[in-house]
Design a protein that fits this description.
The chain has about 290 residues and is an alpha/beta fold. It has eleven helices and ten strands. The strands form two sheets. It has a five-stranded parallel sheet with strand order 3-2-4-1-5, sandwiched between helices. A five-stranded mixed sheet has the order 6-7-10-8-9.
Length: about 290
């Protein structure tokens, strides 16, 4: 661009509802597209207008205060008609939560659902997410996971919720409050298994970010002794570990497979069926063939 030329003006956002992810801690964890929407959308619907105004100030964005509307669990029913009316008029609305991606354990689901039902465009502006950040640093399987949100605060309801998740063959991700962390981990250890691998992350992306990893029982004991930590919490629990079949069961499966297939094919069949390493099954198969 030649010296002295002004930067080209950004086009205003197209009409529709934009679900805009905002930083979960570090203010620079925001996308350029999100900044365009925060500065250019006709209306901002914010879970906490004070938090959103601080974010705007940090990034040098100025807006008419009247264009920033509160939208949260307590006023959603009253605010949705106003926001839907703005969409019907062909305006752009950006929905932001306090931190992270809207609709993930945050208000906004009903607004998005009603906007879709009314035929309005609904677009995601992806970015920071405590769910994905906690999962990424847990050191646990990520190929299949289930986000379970916040567990119920009452002990009986929490046990029931965990009981429904105990056999899910996936990594589990929870949000939890610091003051309930110790009792939540104790309930997880009791219901999901004290030996299951887990991680507890707090203050993700912030100065005092910390992730502790270990068995659920050990983590529950550690936080039970140390007291509530500071900051937002993400708990990740590894999938259930199937008990290894007894040697006699492996041998019986191998003998049956060897009666109809080659050694290589029999090993592959039994290893896949029982979820065992092929090298381990191959060793057992060799021992059986030599003993014949």
């Amino acid at each position: 661009m030649p010296a002295g030329d002004a930067a080209p003006a950004r086009e205003p956002p197209a009409p529709g509802l934009y679900l805009v992810a905002t930083p979960i801690g570090h203010a620079r964890d925001i996308t350029l597209r999100a900044l365009d929407l925060l500065g250019g959308a006709d209306l901002l619907a914010a879970e906490d207008t004070r938090t959103t105004r601080r974010l705007l100030e940090i990034h040098g964005l100025r807006r008419d205060p009247r264009s920033i509307l509160p939208y949260h669990d307590h006023n959603g029913a009253a605010q949705r008609p106003r926001l839907l009316a703005a969409l019907a008029e062909g305006r752009s609305v950006a929905l932001v939560s306090d931190a992270g991606t809207p609709l993930l354990a945050d208000p906004g689901y009903r607004l998005a659902a009603e906007a879709i039902a009314a035929g309005h465009a609904v677009r995601a502006v992806p970015g920071a997410s405590a769910l994905l950040a906690g999962l990424a640093v847990a050191g646990l399987p990520t190929d299949r996971f289930l986000f379970a949100g916040f567990l119920p605060p009452r002990a009986a309801a929490r046990r029931r919720a965990l009981g429904e998740l105990a056999e899910v063959p996936s990594t589990l991700v929870f949000y939890e409050s610091p003051r309930r962390l110790a009792e939540a981990l104790a309930a997880m250890a009791e219901t999901l298994g004290a030996g299951r691998q887990a991680s507890v992350s707090r203050e993700l992306t912030k100065r005092f970010e910390e992730t502790r990893r270990g068995r659920l029982g050990d983590l529950a004991a550690a936080y039970g002794e140390s007291g509530p930590p500071k900051g937002e919490i993400v708990v990740v629990v590894g999938p259930p570990v199937a008990e290894a079949p007894e040697e006699a069961a492996v041998d019986a499966a191998l003998l049956a497979a060897l009666g109809r297939a080659s050694l290589k094919d029999a090993v592959a069949e039994v290893a896949d069926a029982l979820g065992l390493p092929r090298r381990e099954v191959y060793g057992r198969a060799l021992a059986l063939t030599r003993a014949r």
